[in-house]
User: Which sequence fits this backbone?
């Protein structure tokens, strides 16, 4: 009976390791996506700054066009920030799950050692 329990514990342990690997892969994907969002945000700000200085040089840019352009840039920046915040929250949840899995692995190791 003990070998069956040990085999069952090993199988459970292996499943938890697979889950841990999947969580790590998803976390890395989220980190990559967040990096991409932040990089796009930096590019947007730089583009906006360059455009703003270019607009100052061109005096024939109408006020309504400028306002529309500014609104578009602001909306893009805000959506990038919002998406980044969502991704950060998802990463925090994954981090909590990762800690729980580490605890489960420690428990499984203790059970395996006690057999």
Assistant:
């Amino acid at each position: 009976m003990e070998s069956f329990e040990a085999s069952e514990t090993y199988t459970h342990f292996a499943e938890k390791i697979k889950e841990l690997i999947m969580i790590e892969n998803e976390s890395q994907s989220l980190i990559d996506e967040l990096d991409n969002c932040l990089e796009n945000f930096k590019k947007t700000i730089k583009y906006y700054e360059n455009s703003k200085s270019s607009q100052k040089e061109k005096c024939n840019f109408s006020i309504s066009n400028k306002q529309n352009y500014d609104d578009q840039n602001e909306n893009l920046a805000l959506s990038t920030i919002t998406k980044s915040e969502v991704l950060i929250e998802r990463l925090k949840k994954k981090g909590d799950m990762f800690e729980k899995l580490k605890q489960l692995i420690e428990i499984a190791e203790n059970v395996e050692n006690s057999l």
